[in-house]
Design brief:
This protein has two domains: 127 residues, no CATH class; 239 residues, Purple Acid Phosphatase, chain A, domain 2. It is of the alpha/beta class and 371 residues long. It is 41% helix and 16% strand. Helix 1 packs across helix 3 and helix 3 packs antiparallel against helix 4.
Length: 371
């Protein structure tokens, strides 16, 4: 029922955006009627593609090539909508009244420029989604007895286009960094576990001195959170379930705590419990893995040095980051939340929905922890 309500509202919004693009952009273009008809047909096909994509989220047998094309329409609509808004602004600039030829030339230039802009940013966004970069981040943690280098992966979203080859490439990049530990901060699996096993199994090849640690994100709750955690444990990944472990050498390491995601409150199961997660810790610096940045609101006055989060994808497609800001206190990067606690928010290692990224590249975070 929750999916039906979400899908209905989502498709209604996408339909409105398509109508707006047609009336406020395509209709106003100074191009032949046949070209306008072609663009409107493309817009209709694109909307049908969104409907097919919503269905394909639950039809995991869809071939990846087809899934790729079905994933694009949401991003196309969003970027065309942004182009339409830009076109609206440009079309209301002061006009040259006396020179009709110059005015017609300016109108034609804006029209063609807008079409070229929409095409180029869409192509660039698709290209960006296929790239993942190592983000080097230095974090000073008071009283840390010795430095540690750790890798954070987040929001991989295994399923659909995020397949075994994608994960194998990520694992190879991580291993070249030779980290002391690997932390996965949620939304790792975004499909039924039975269809994700080949990709997830690649994580067994992650190499680090102290192992791989994982917390759930909100998307795991949609696909059998217990089954996902059980399988990850079976391949040697330590799942932190409102608990903590000690990382590093005796008396010179740090506490690593992890909590369930905030979605657990809505699901009424696997809810985060920070009090339980911090029980029986050693007298050492503390790092907390919490999927959503806004969980930091529950951590005031707690003795936590660094929070590692994800969830936001850095906005994934600009200017969507402005909407994410309404929901989350931090979008990406390192922030000093209060005098005691810092938070780092990953832009994500994979992507969700359209295979597009614009203004927020995928990242493998290499954290250099020092005192």
């Amino acid at each position: 029922m929750r999916f039906i309500i979400f899908a209905t509202v989502f498709l209604f919004v996408m339909g409105l955006l398509s109508f707006f693009i047609s009336k406020r952009f395509i209709k106003k273009l100074d191009i032949p009627k046949k070209s306008k008809l072609f663009l409107n047909i493309f817009l209709l096909i694109n909307f049908l593609g969104i409907i097919a994509y919503m269905a394909s989220r639950y039809l995991v047998s869809v071939p990846n090539d087809l899934y790729f094309f079905l994933s694009l329409p949401i991003g196309v609509i969003f970027l065309l909508f942004c182009t339409t808004l830009m076109y609206e602004v440009l079309s209301h600039l002061p006009k040259v009244r006396k020179d009709e030829k110059r005015r017609a030339f300016m109108k034609k230039s804006i029209d063609l420029g807008s079409l070229a802009f929409a095409t180029s940013i869409t192509a660039r966004a698709i290209y960006n989604a296929k790239q993942s970069y190592v983000e080097n981040v230095s974090v000073k943690i008071p009283n840390l007895k010795k430095p540690y280098n750790v890798v954070q992966l987040s929001d991989v979203h295994i399923g659909g286009l995020i397949d075994q080859d994608f994960i194998k490439n990520i694992v190879n990049k991580v291993n070249k960094l030779n980290p002391d530990a690997v932390f996965i901060t949620g939304d790792l699996v975004d499909t039924n576990m039975n269809f994700a096993k080949d990709a997830v199994d690649e994580l067994k090849n992650l190499k680090s001195k102290y192992g791989t640690y994982y917390i759930v994100g909100n998307h795991e709750y949609f696909h059998g959170v217990q089954e996902i955690m059980t399988y990850l444990k079976s391949i040697g990944i330590r799942v932190l379930e409102n608990e903590n472990v000690y990382i590093g050498e005796k008396d010179s390491g740090f506490n690593l705590a992890g909590v369930y995601d905030l979605f657990g409150y809505k699901a009424n199961n696997f809810a985060p419990n920070i009090k339980k997660a911090l029980e029986n810790m050693k007298n050492s610096p503390t790092i907390l893995l919490a999927h959503q940045p806004k969980y930091i609101k529950e951590l005031d006055k707690l003795d936590i040095d660094l929070v590692l989060s994800g969830h936001t994808h850095g906005g994934q497609i600009v200017p969507f980051n402005l909407l994410v800001r309404l929901e989350q206190p931090y979008i990406k990067g390192l922030h000093q939340h209060n005098p005691k606690t810092q938070i780092y928010v990953s832009k994500g290692t994979g992507f969700w929905g359209p295979p597009m990224r614009l203004g927020a590249s995928s990242e493998i975070t290499y954290l250099k922890l020092t005192s």
